[in-house]
Amino acid sequence: MFGKILSLVGNKIFVENASGVADTNYIGYHIVFAEQEHKIVGEIVSLDSKQIEILLIGEISGGVFSNGVLKKPGINTIPRIIYKSELELILGSQNYLDKKNLLFGASPIYKDYVVTSDISGFFANHFAILGNSGAGKSCGVARILQNVFYTSTNDIPASAHVCLFDVYGEYYNTFEEMNNFPNLHFKKYTTQLEFGNADLLTIPAYLLGVDDLAILLGATDPGQIPVLQKAIDLAKIFTSQDPKAEDYKNNIIANCILEILSSGKTSSIIRDQIISVLTSYNTPTLNLDTLIHQPGYDRTVRQCLNIDDQGKLNAINLVVDFFQAYAKLKIEQIKLETENPYTLKDLYYALEFALINEGSLVSEAVFERSNILKSRLATIINSDKIHYFEFTEYLSRNDFVEQFFLTGPNGDTCQLIDVNLSFIDDKFAKSLVKIFTKLFFDYTTSLENRGTYPIHVLLEEAHRYVQNDTDLHVLGYNIFDRITKEGRKYGMILGFITQRPNELSKTALSQCSNFVVFRLFYPDDLEIVKGISSNVTDDTIEKIKTLHPGMGLVFGTAFKIPLLVKFSLPNPLPVSTSLQIDNVWYQ
């Protein structure tokens, strides 16, 4: 079939077609130019009756395939079809029952051959699974995970921790069979409040850090962060049984009163604001009826706020001296012995105090900027969303994460979790996904022995969450970008599943090492795929545009070269099949 080399153009070689037959079945086959010390590998990209176009892709030396060509074949070297023993160096080990090998699917080019990768090469790195709706993306995801957990009955990945955030509830029953395998467990969380057949997705309010609260309440100004941090600190103190908590509360009230007294406003406004504060915020030792002692007789705080005929507060110096005695306590002096769980309602009460402490009653600008956070928190408290933050027991952040990945009364490890987000709106879902992902990341980075508890977060419709949004301006970082840059060494791995890579954070996508690409049409998306790897050529892009459903192109550090894969259908299928109009309209 192969004759002499006709010409070399860059990495393409044109070889005489000795058979004179344009057999297009050979397109996609790999050929070898066998040199004395090494072998140069190419791929047939086109042919006609006169010549065969071959793209050089790599070399085999010492039984190892390496991507890229350092030296072109000699002009007199005649190529041949690749041997089976050499093909395994490119497609991956054909022993996919070995725990070290991850099965993807069948090779559409070579009959009876499969495409595999080293399991660490794929799952120890961030990855992206891309494809238009209907291209087979959901089935491909399900098939890959089923291959991980179902392929080998001898080696069970019992210490895996995979959390799949499921936007449409497509995978809810796709992995139930895992529970029939020894030491394997599949667990479901739901956001359905009334009729869910799984555990309700909840996170205790007391585990929300300042960044979590900023995300939940949609903070837009870095200046709002100190207020939220103060609210969290106050919530811990106000719900504590420690006697020192009341001292701190008195300190906050006293400082607020002193700020009002020094505001320069009229006596009537000062009196009304102080009464308003002490009516809403008081303690047993500091309230409107607290006695202020003076020589001869005692007066209550309320009585000291009386205004005389000339419109003055005659006892203002007495009031100032009284509240200054409570305002001397420094924040760092308060060290509570214990922390109690608190609710969103406790947090709301603490946020009001925080706003007072920040001067919201005397500074209109501060009030306008921060009061919106209080309004948004009130909206959550007064809606069904409050149920997602209710929790019956007190757990540390690390204990909560570990319990999240446990199942059943025996506390067995749950290797795969599906979180069904289909019952909540996109904005709230985005907040929850960010909060849980950050929680997992914080857990993995807290471990003394890094990488001993790997967590994989798979984000279906990732473009909804992994965006270039305001987090960088408000918090100083985007949690997904940060994890893609820092998480791998701690065992925190992200998998992005999306039909719109163009809308995904460019930073996050650039940190992915492996890709599974199903059919894509949109030019901007294709341009992004082309820029991901030097191995993705114009010919590769043309392949992506015409891929059949269930066919994908895999490439990245886990693969020697970009390879076409025909994924077998998962069993059972995710609920993602296309609408059959003829079955619905004419039933």
Percent of residues in helices: 25-40%
Number of helices: 19
In spatial order, strands of the major sheet run 13-12-18-11-19-20-10-21-22-23
Poorly predicted residue ranges? none
Q: Which overall shape is indicated by the principal axes computed on the Cα atoms?
A: elongated
Q: What is the residue-averaged pLDDT?
A: 90
Beta-strand share of residues: 15-25%
Give the C-alpha Rg.
Answer: 32 Å
Give the strand tally. 23
Instruction: Give a short account of the largest sheet.
Output: 10 strands, mixed
Structural class given helices, strands, pairing? Answer: alpha/beta
Question: How would you describe this protein?
Answer:
The strands form five sheets. The protein has a ten-stranded mixed beta sheet, sandwiched between helices. Strands 1, 2, 3, 4, 5, 6 and 7 form a seven-stranded antiparallel beta sheet that branches. 39% of the residues are buried. 34% of the residues lie in helices and 20% in strands. The chain is of the alpha/beta class and 587 residues long.
